[in-house]
Design goal:
By secondary structure, the chain is mainly α. The protein is built from 8 helices and no strands. Helix 2 packs antiparallel against helix 3. It is globular and about 55 Å long.
């Protein structure tokens, strides 16, 4: 049966599925506090799908929030912003504020994980703008 599935999926689809699987593994590792391992998985996923802004954003969040590697995180944020103008607009408002996202923050947002991240970034940007 696995061969039947492969015949219907293009090589691109198979690679994107692998990138999604790696990203999910990275998310789980990060949630468990295994930040270095999570970064390795994000890097593997980014090797397959380097134009995915969400992968860059999740890597940035893990670098900053988990490992306090803020300079490396900023590089990832810049790549994510170049790939997604909505994310870029939201992050611009928070340029002077450290961005830390915790799983508990994401539970209040509906939709995909990417949508939840965007909404959280927008919310934090709005709060910073008011200050």
């Amino acid at each position: 049966m696995a061969e039947d599935v492969k015949t219907y999926l293009s090589k691109r689809d198979i690679l994107l599925n692998k990138a999604d699987r790696l990203a999910l593994e990275a998310d789980q590792l990060s949630y468990q506090g295994k930040y270095e391992e999570a970064i390795e998985k994000y890097d593997q996923a980014l090797t397959i799908y380097p134009s995915n802004p969400d992968l860059w954003a999740f890597k940035a969040i893990t670098l900053s929030g988990g490992l306090n590697r803020n300079e490396d995180a900023l590089v990832c944020w810049e790549k994510a912003k170049k790939l997604d103008h909505v994310l870029a607009d939201a992050v611009e408002y928070t340029a002077n504020a450290p961005m830390t996202v915790y799983e508990r923050d994401l539970k209040d947002f509906k939709g995909s994980t990417a949508d939840r991240i965007r909404n959280l970034v927008k919310q934090q940007a709005s709060e910073q703008k008011k200050k």
